[in-house]
Amino acid sequence: MREIRHYGIKDQAGAINAVLRGHYAYYGIAGNLRSLMKVYRVVERYWFKMLRSRSRDGGRLTWGAFNRIKEWAPLLRPKLRLPFGKLQALAVL
Prior knowledge:
Blueprint: H1 9-27, H2 33-52, H3 63-72, H4 84-90
């Protein structure tokens, strides 16, 4: 995120979403939803921190303003690619 800190908001969200999409695709199996939510929250907090560090006035960015930014350029929420039903179908004993 440090490399894309000074990009436009939409460009930043697109780059972050590309990384999140790959992470969710790889780790999105049944039983990992809690961990994926932790990853989402860490990414969200770090993006907030990076937006605050963009300029001298960035310290004025509040969580309310950040939530409005997220409505305009949302981050991908975690999604299981392999839920329990499909996972059981793959398990052959």
